[in-house]
Amino acid sequence: MLTSLKNRKASSNLCCLIWFSLCVLAGCSPEKAELHPSAGQRHIAGEASYREEEQVLSGFQMIAEYAAKPYATVGTVPPSPERMSRKKKAFLSFDDGPSRQTKPILRILREKGIKATFFVTGKSSPELQSYYKLIVNEGHSLGNHTYSHDYGYIYSSVGAYRTDTEKLNDLLARTAGVRPDIFRFPGGSDNHLSRKAGGRHIMAKIAREMTNIGYQYFDWNVSSTDAAAVTLPKQDILASVQSNSRGKNQIIVLMHDADFKTTTVEALPDAIDWLKKQGYQFETLSKSSFVFRFLHPPG
């Protein structure tokens, strides 16, 4: 009787694995195939609008990697990298600043007693340039988001991206006394607009070059979706942070620091409070911190 039960259990587990493989071949969506980890949402930034999509990892790659683990058993859902870490960490990140919203964001972070990472762009205004130093002085991290944020230019060639990045670092060195070694690609490392400027493989080429010269880039695994509209309702932003962070122990949260992102600022205190209640500790991104990437640079 016991042997029969074991056999039925083994058969059931094997069926689960076969079902998943067939599901991948048939093109099941991430919602239907639970073994697909969410790769977050990527944004394509414009001055007044953004677009977000989702990317998922290959199911077959996950099966191969999972089967090689000593804890793997047929029919068991493989833990994501976020789940494997016991300590819950949240890395808040703000793209596209500084802006008129930078000071309100800094005030909220100060009141909540947490630090964040700002992936900034180049600004010509003396007032906005002073915010670079303000961010650093308050204990937050600066990351490079390119000087121009111009897709057509920065993604036209490897040299163009590197030049634009170093132009911003020169500005940050003069105004804030730092040269960031972390950066975020405008649109994320898997954006499609880059192909129009530099071809199908331009992102991989840029990622390889920037990694080789000492930089580390970060995408995100939790999107606030505040880029889905010029001004997204506060409750929608909060709901996105909550739903996209569930089940993950380490999260890099994408938000935006831009003049028109007033509701992002409004949602921020509640988002922080909710994450704290879930047991998250807040840290800043660095080359030694948790990394999440849509595109891994080829060797």
What is this structure, in a nutshell?
By secondary structure, the chain is an alpha/beta fold. The chain has helices at residues 2-26, 59-67, 81-84, 102-112, 126-137, 151-154, 158-176, 193-198, 202-212, 234-245, 262-277; strands at residues 38-45, 50-56, 89-95, 117-120, 141-144, 182-183, 216-217, 222-223, 250-256, 281-282.
Please report the total strand number as a whole number. 10
- Main sheet overview: 6 strands, parallel
Q: What is the level 1 CATH name of the largest domain?
A: Alpha Beta
Query: What fold name goes in the CATH topology slot of the largest domain?
Result: TIM Barrel
- Structural class, by secondary structure, is alpha/beta
What distance lies between the first and last C-alpha atoms, to the nearest angstrom? 53 Å
CATH architecture of the largest domain: Alpha-Beta Barrel
Q: How many discrete domains?
A: 2
- Helix and strand sequence: HEEHHEHEHEHHEHHEEHEHE
- At the fourth level of CATH, the homologous superfamily of the largest domain is Glycoside hydrolase/deacetylase
Shape: globular
Annotation field: number of helices? 11
The average pLDDT is 81
Strand content: 15-25%
Share of helix, binned: 40-55%
Tell me the radius of gyration.
21 Å
Unreliable runs, pLDDT <50, ≥5 residues? 1-80
